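To fix ideas, we reproduce below a protein record of this kind.
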Amino acid sequence: MSETPAPTHFRIRWGWFAGCIVLGLAAIMVGDFVAPAADRVGYLAGVLANVGTTLLLVGIVVLLERRIIDNAVRLVRTANEQANEAIRVQIQDLDDRLAAEWASATAENVAEKTAETRRLTDEFTKRIVDDAKREA
C-alpha cells in the first residue's frame, strides 16, 4: 500500500511580508502628502475603508483557501484510493482465474492453457482500458 506524503509545512516569506507593509505605508504617506489640505480628511477615511476591506477579504480568502485546497486534496486522494482498490480486486480476480486455469495443466494441454491465458489477459486489459477511457 502506498504511503501518503507528509504535509508540507507552510512557510511565510517574512522579507516579502515586511516589504509589502513598508511599501504600502509609504504609498499611503505619499498619497497623504500629495492630497490637497482640504481633501486630507476624505483621503484618510478612504484609505482606512480600503485597508479594512482589504484585510477582510484577505482574511476570508486565506481561511477559505486552505479549507478548499484541503478538501480537494482529500477528495482526490479518496477517489485515487478507491480506484486503486478496484484495480487490485480485478487483478486478484485475474490472478485467481489464471491460477485455476493452470492448476489442471498437463504437458498435452499447455498450448490450450496458453491460449486461454492470453484470452483472459486480453479481456482484462481491454476492460481496464475501456474503464479508463470512460472515466477520462
User: Anything to note?
Assistant: The mean pLDDT is 86.
